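To whoever is on call:

I kicked off a structure prediction for a single chain this morning and the downstream step that reads the tokens threw a length-mismatch warning. I double-checked the sequence; it's 178 residues and nothing unusual in it as far as I can see. Pasting both halves so you can look.
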Amino acid sequence: MGIGLAITDHNEVAGVLKAWNNIYDVLIIPGMEFTCAEGFHVLTYFYNVGDLEEFYVNHIKKNKSEHPYMVTKLSFNNLVDSIGKYNCVLSAAHPVSPTRMGLFTNIKRGYIEEKATSKINAFEVISGSHSRNMNYNAIKWAWQLNKPVTGGSDAHTLIDIGKTVTYSSGSTIDSFLD
């Protein structure tokens, strides 16, 4: 169908690695949804699976909490510092979520400085698990900051996979992420 897939499990890369050499020749964008110590989520999309795996082993695996899919011990600033040597795209996942999972809420509550937005490459403005109003507010904020936008299903169950997509005419990882 010409559709690619970004797999961004919470603080984990096993799904991406399993899907990477698929027999169907589906374009896989290597990624992960990282949970900062502050609580908000950052989507990381890597240009190659080797960098993702190396980043995970060297920085994420040892910083997971007791519940591996929840908050890690790495702050947002530590994430940015450690990910700087890798070629990847950072996107604020569901940035206006009213919980601490959203970047906007963390800024509003003073947990993170507003200048953190300059370290984010894009905003996920269409999240399949969030309301139309939250998505609309994310779009407005992204436009105000002149940020590129993404969309994702934020699928936590199989039925949610593919409910939201990001369109790009790219047919390779590089062309899609560029």
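Update from on-call: the warning came from a stale cache, not from the record. Cleared it. Sanity check on the structure: The first strand starts at residue 5 and ends at 7.
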